[in-house]
Design goal:
Blueprint: H1 3-33, H2 43-67, H3 76-103, H4 110-138
Helix pairs in contact: 1-2, 1-4, 3-4
Length: 140
Amino acid sequence: MTFTERYTWAGLILSIATFAAYWIVVVIRAASDVLPFAEVAWQGPMLWALILGGGLYALAMLVLWIRVRGEARTDARDHEIERYAATAGNGITGVAVLATLAMLPLAAPLFWTATVLFAGSFLGSVVSTGATLSAYRRGF
């Protein structure tokens, strides 16, 4: 398993765990306070999800990088796979950004606007990661 494939797996696991943890906190808050989602205090959990998720991903990258010190980390195939995966995920992320930009002038509730951006970015990342792992497993 190449270095890129290892950190791709680590990123997928961390992003799914972070996204799920955010939603668990928001759903529990909405259920316990009997509030609609738009009125739940979601800002703190989202910030913590972004900070902790990003921090854990950086830590995982550092650990993996230290473990493979001195080995070749990437080659031409890795670069082609990364380009292919970025193309696959960027479309979804772009649609999420476009939807968010459309929601802002329509004065949509801030919760839903942020959620569309957060979920769209997550889905774009998962699609990109899935394309990367598929290319490594099935060949590219």
